[in-house]
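Annotated sample (chain length 144).
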Amino acid sequence: MFSVKEFLTHSAEETTILGRDLAALLTPPKLVLLQGDLGSGKTTLVKGIVEYLGGAKRQEVTSPTFNLIHEFHSPAAEIYHIDLYRIDTPRQLETLGIDDLTSLRSLILIEWGEKFERFHRNRDVEIVFERTGENARRIRVTGL
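Output written by the structure step:
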């Protein structure tokens, strides 16, 4: 049974800080699904995770909506930030080679992964974002 924790953030900065706090618990190998509407804070949280793990400075972390996969190398992990928003079919998904990214050092963070049952089934952690105000978010973490 998965444990569930809920957090409230009131700004992008608080969401980034939450990402830093969660990063300490995301020891590889992990598959993490990030769910929420466009602009709900998924990439903002990833900024904190990547920065904490030493993969990049937060301002260097951007949404992989058009590149689909951003890679960050750190002493702690090989971090892959993946956005499947524009991927609609299993055939399109297969061309990304996500299975090739899996290793004992990989931390795979997938936005819109819930579109494909295999990611939902194989996830280690699920993080769901809900807007509760202009800058406020309810963030529910399952699996830590």
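Annotation: The first strand starts at residue 4 and ends at 9.
Annotation: The chain has a mean pLDDT of 93.
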